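Quick one: co-fold with flavin mononucleotide.
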Amino acid sequence: MLKTRICDLLQIEYPIFAAPMGLITGPDLAAAVSGAGGMGIMSAGANPPEALRNAIRRLRRLTSRPVGVNVLLTEIRNFPRPVDELVGVCIEERVDVLSLYDGDPAPYVERAHRAGVKVMDQVGSVEAAVRSARAGVDIIVAQGVEAGGHLAGGTPLSGLLPRVVDAVAPTPVLAAGGIADARGVVAALAMGAEGVVMGTRFIATPESEAHPVYKQRLLAAGEADTEYTSMFGWDWPDAPHRVIRTRFVEEWRGREARGQEGRPDEPAIGVLRIGGNEFPILRFMSPPPSIHASGDIESMAMYAGTGVGLVNEIRPAGEIVREIAAEAQRIVQERLYPAVVRTRSA
Ligand SMILES: Cc1cc2nc3c(=O)[nH]c(=O)nc-3n(C[C@H](O)[C@H](O)[C@H](O)COP(=O)(O)O)c2cc1C
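Sure, here it is.
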């Protein structure tokens, strides 16, 4: 059985988490991962508060297991979101884990704890991890620069994770960034993580809300096909992210500054539908191509981590969780444990 302290803390079977991915991790994906014994963290996405409440209720109907919901604390240019209210909805609905990103978690911790909600914060540096731990955050996610999506820091996981683990002990730490199979899980546990958060692996599932073209690009990409850039910065400037190196990314490489300007006259490349409303997607905007988007999908931000080369087929999310958990256990029992025993008796 692959079990760590985090499993007892959250009453889950396996220390495997589906990352909150804006517009991609909806109720279906989160429920499939929680239902299989891991924990799905649904993204609040672009939902206004009442739509978020409905999404959480749908998630609860789909699974009776513990679930998390993520609220992005970022101020998105030209798309104001009532962050305080969104966090309030998560707390009122008593999600098991309130996951936060890209901001100071301190104002929310006490409110969440009073309702019995645990708080998780994703960070990219030791300093940010210590700040979160001091604020009373229950679980810290150390995000390496290998990650898909927006990046909290610039350090590879192997340098960051053990330092974060030491700095915030005994607060449990999860590893995120470039992990896409059981070998990555075992490596993260060996570095002191209590579990892993995988995003890219779960994009290639029937339950994810990624556009079919995005899923196909992901399957075709290898480990050298991602790019660290700040190109898709129209609405979220100066925020590095990792995407698949598509033709569009190749074309604008070296001219990323243009993406930060937020020019109102950038051409519209598509449309995003959110709750009955349609929003134009201008060139360099941050939303990834989801099933709610249409238009020039190839020119949108196809976020992916460096583990993308390991993602070669679309598989149900629950199968991925169970297989990775079983395989991780096999690696420890059949490769690592015998290696130690052999050394001892030699
Ligand atoms: C498409 C996509 C969207 C993401 N959106 C969010 C988000 O809204 N909130 C958040 O906390 N993290 C977000 N992330 C980052 C993930 O939480 C996580 O750090 C990352 O997926 C881990 O790396 P991996 O993709 O290599 O597994 C996103 C990642 C991806 C790939």
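If it helps, The longest strand covers residues 268-274.
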